[in-house]
Each structure stands twice: as C-alpha cells, then as structure tokens.
Amino acid sequence: IGENEGVNIMVTALLKELGVKRLICRVTSPLQKTVLEAMNIEEFANPEEDSAERLAYKLDLKGVVDAFKISDKYQLLEAEVPGKFISRKVSEINWTEKYRVQLVTIIRKSEEKNIFGLLKSSSRVLGVVQPDTTLRKGDVLLLFGDISDLERFLEV
Fold this sequence. Notes:
By secondary structure, this protein is α+β, with helices and mostly antiparallel strands. Helix content is 28%, strand content 29%. The strands form 2 sheets. Strands 3-4-7-5-6 form a 5-stranded antiparallel sheet. Strands 1-2 form a two-stranded parallel ribbon.
C-alpha cells in the first residue's frame, strides 16, 4: 500500500485478523520490515530496491540485459554472448569446470518479414540447449551462478 508505512502495517494486521492465508507486504524501510516480521509476515516485496539492483548490474557489467537475484550469493543473469565465444559450440565451453556458471538457455534474435514485407525483429528461447548449438552474435545467454563467477565469466 503505497509509501505509507503506518497504513501498510494496519491493513496487514486487519488482513491477518480476517485469516488471509497469504500476505505479501511491500516494504520501504528496514524498520517496517522488522515490524511486519514480528507479525509473522514472511513474504516481502521491495520493488524500488529490486529495480535499482537490476539497473546497477546493467550499468556495471558490459553486456548484461537483466539480472535476477536468487539469494545473496546466487543469481540468474541475462547477458549478451561475450565476443570470445561467438561462433563456438556450447560443448566447447567449459561452463562449469572453468567458469563455474551454468548455461540455462539461449535467447536468440531473428528477423522475419511481416505480412507487409517489412522486417520485424523477434526473440525466441531455444529451450534446453543442445551441445552442438553454435553461439551467434546477438545471442543472449541466461546464466546461473555465484555472482562473482558470473562477473568473471562476462569479463573474459
């Protein structure tokens, strides 16, 4: 409920009293979160902090399209394929052994003509990536791993 912490806490208390089974509370400060935790609230949303963190990765690491924090240590990261890996097969890259990251899938851009004959760009997810898939310029990799390992992988 907006930025009014007092209203947020009061409405949460009323909803708990009504027996609502699942409450996800928006928090805007550590103190507000502490009060809600004392009320046995376990799920929180902090859109401003989440957006800021995702933007920071885009600005800080070259090629990052988006980032999703899984925990304090692990992350899912969408990033453009580093130039060093363009034209290489997925099986040729030591994802887990050398870089300690896991390739989840590839988002591949393509251009198609629409019904008027104009080029329209679109993206498609390749799903489970086959070992013989060749990485192309413009591919976006969905990677999972420790934050420091992901950063090291993207800096190669």
